[in-house]
Structures
1.
Amino acid sequence: MIEVNNVSKIYTTQGVSAHALKDISFNVPAGEILGIVGHSGAGKSTLIRCLNLLERPSSGQIIIDKQELTTLNASQLRLARHHIGMIFQHFNLLSSRSAYANIAFPLQLLGHDRRTIAKKIAPLIELTGLTQLQHAYPSQLSGGQKQRVAIARALACQPKVLLCDEATSALDPYNTTNILELLKDINRQLGLTIVLITHEMDVIKQVCDRVGILDKGELVEINNTLQFLAKPQTTIGKQFASSCLQLPLPSILQKRLQNQQTATNKALIHIAFHGKQTNTPIISRLSQQLKCEINIIQANIEYIQDQPIGMMLVEVDYNATEFLTALNNITNVVAEVKGYV
Amino acid sequence: MSKALVIELFNATWETLYMVGIASIIATIIGIPLGVCLFITRKHGLLPHKVFNRTLAAIINALRSIPFIILLVAIIPFTRFVVGTSIGTTAAIVPLSIGAFPFVARLVENSLNEIPIGLIEAGQAMGASLWQIIYKILLPEAAASIVNGVTLMVIALIGYSAMAGVVGGGGLGDLAIRYGYQRFDTRIMLITVIILIIMVQLIQVAGDFCTRKLDKR
């Protein structure tokens, strides 16, 4: 559905040129949710804005729904944009229009009459749960509600593609989850292809089928979300994966953390496992086998694309290296010694 | 107070309303498109055009820096060309309009500047044309702020209109100068000032009311 070929973007200010995007290529098949994650300044916003040519790439090709956007003239591009929805971090609703009139806006741009508009947006208002709020003005709505209006507006022209530019970054966790659920619903019900950019791995974890890592303008890694989390390939990928899979060390332990194992301290080990491994009773088996005490400090199991991913932070009164060897004999998990307390 | 004087006051009030009213309408009609032009042709605007932008800005600045009393007499030939005469109330409308439209252009530009850039981007992302962005996004979003500014302009014009007497424009200001000042008639002076105060108050109230109605932020 979306094809990005060798896209680069160079900004030149006062003779100094900066590479915002370097030779980026990827495809998004129809019906997929692709998440692009990166630190601020990595070029995420530039990339998503290049997809509908709000920002014109310096070189490369953007093909959406078999149409090469980069070769279109201004009026053809406008027409193509009607079928590419976009939502923004700050919602960008027209403050002078009610929720209903905001949703109707793109259809008005196309010159539809009132009756057609009403017919087209009624199901969208229901889908986004705005029936009670359709006559309210944006200033009377909460962030989550505003983003719902923005989503309904983006869907008004029945686009095949939806671009989300940090769509949940201005929302609290509750509304973030809410909006992400809505995006997932839309993706399933309408078969919409979604590209979203974010700096939060949680967003990726909740909705994305695939994830791309953008670092200093380069797409360094792109993979199925579950596979990526289980086995990130790059250093920056590992950072992002561990940011959402590593359990944080409680600060009280962090303060007491030592680098060397001695006779009196215990090893702190972080264990991550996914898929079938979640069924293996690792702890009790190791405890019996090694005759040692294992104390679980923190543990969590999450479901990503309906697959469990588990994390555990344990304290063991045993030689750390031998413990890891024994652990790997039982099952293939990712374990790491965090230190000794 | 003599009947003649009451009629004189009524006439003067009407003349002020007429001059200021028509001049305000003309200034707004000319000023809004110019303000939009200033906004869209600037650097990183919707239709950047450095030369056009600089030239327009320079003309507007030049017009705004001429003291109104000078403008009034300086453009007499132009006034005669437009309305056929250079004296009288109708003739005063020309300099009043010319004095006010650059002000409107600047305040419209300012109002448009206050619109979050994201709204324009959203419009572009939805496939809006330049024209649609102007009249469906920019102007409605800035409407409250523009009305607020136009109210200021109308009130400023009431002040300017006092000088219209120079070209025989009449109006309350002229009456106050001729009867109140030159004839030492404090009573007339006081009455005209009170009428002007009431007029300004009413315009401000009406302007505020419209601004509130339009402002959904």
2.
Amino acid sequence: MTTGQSMTAAGSSSIGESRLDVEQIRQDFPILGQQVNGKPLVYLDNAATAQKPRVVIDAIQEYYQTYNSNIHRGVHHLSQVATEAYEKARVKAQRLLNASESREIIFVRSTTEAINLVAQTFGRERLQAGDEVVVSAMEHHSNIVPWQMICQEKDARLRVIPINDKGELLLEEYERLLSERTRVVAVTHISNALGTINPIEQMIEMAHQYDAAVLIDGAQGAPHLPLDVQALDCEFYAFSGHKFYGPTGVGVLYGKGDLLDSLPPYQGGGEMILSVSFEETTYNVVPHRFEAGTPNIVGAIALGKAIDYVIHIGLERIAYHEDELFRYATQQLSGLPDLTIIGTADSKASIISFVMDDIHAHDVGTILDQEGVAVRTGHHCAQPVMDRFEVPATSRASFAFYNTKEEVDVLVEGIGKVIEVFK
Amino acid sequence: MSLLRDLYQEVILDHSKSPRNFAQLSDANRQADGYNPLCGDKVTVYLKVEDGVVEDVSFKGAGCAISTASASLMTQAVKGKGLAETEELFKSFHGLVTGKAEEGVELGELMAFQGVSEFPVRVKCATLAWHTLQAALEKEAGIISTE
């Protein structure tokens, strides 16, 4: 098993015994049954966004058809039903992350908004001139730019943990970067461009030696690994609903309760206040202080359904199946001529980035699409990673628990077609 | 495969593997950079324009097969052409790759890009070099982006 620190080592045999019934699971995802360009859809772009099970799609329709209403304000029946459903979703996210209190769960639009929220509240309040924020060389742009913006404003410094040729963080360099000036360490759980699973438990502990707060970008981590934020002890953990089999436009920010209590609001507006006059406004308590305006009510409720669904299947079983797929795909792709996998960390999730000799990723993507295979091509919003490996772009296949070995075979045959066209 | 064969015609594969006029032009009097942030394609177009005529043209850069071949064939097509003629050529070419072909000038070898119209997301690949050429002719400063 390559999934490292967050996985329990025990039970791989028992997991094997209760293997996922993937064919059954695929029936839960209406989109997977279709044809693209006359071929059965092989959806391998899960790191960009995951497909939605029917329970999630139904929850959206049910909300609008039977209890659409604004929350937290109405005394009428529908408002109470909607409020209850929304707050229940918060508890579901709390359980998923094993947070100690539901108020530690803030609903946001996306991982991107969660990171901006932390940069603009924690960063704005705590950063002073000369302070340092540590990120890594494998971050998505959304875990770079919000920190660059606040560092520029506060005259603070952005430091970058380098990576080796396998796409692993250099922990000794990380150790050297940490100091009394370090206020924040913001690092991804799983790299979206390389698939690397970072040793976040160890990194959080190291940061805490210097009293630095740690934000984990869990956009790729949460959908694929079991989580326990109390055991991790990170200050913040963020993930997106749409990569977690839920809808777009909703995400989760976990923050330690005491820390959130001490932070100023992010945006001003309704919901985040207790009382307003033109002289003075009293801010609401956490989490409402950070949820100005009518939130994505249906998004949160549907994400709650997605969490139920994933927990029902079991994140350990999901991680096990995806790891099997990942190993099979790595083996099959490694055997192809003219193909190089970018990102060969010892601990990897089910994301495979690759380049082909003299064939641009964009051409690979177009030809695979003709075979019904959806992969991502480009820089994956991680241009520093592309620069590090000196490639303009990569093709990326990313797997979910509804993918099969047969689909890996279609991908490999598709790459055969690519070679055929260009030879 | 037939749609793909239409897209990746022999002449396109040939020019993408061995691009013509692929060098910096030492006596260029105009140049511009083009960039497609979606796929990372970069191209620099060099021009030597004398008396309203493209006396010489070349390009450098890195990109997909479509964008490289397009730049290569473009340099061959516009060399020796007048500025108005070059502009007309781009108009016709743009019409061809977007599937809105109208009565225009003879496109010759550029007709190889007809298949691009079936792949709307690849139109930008085919037109990046042309947009960059246009910028060089207009002597626009800075980088031309497809976005």
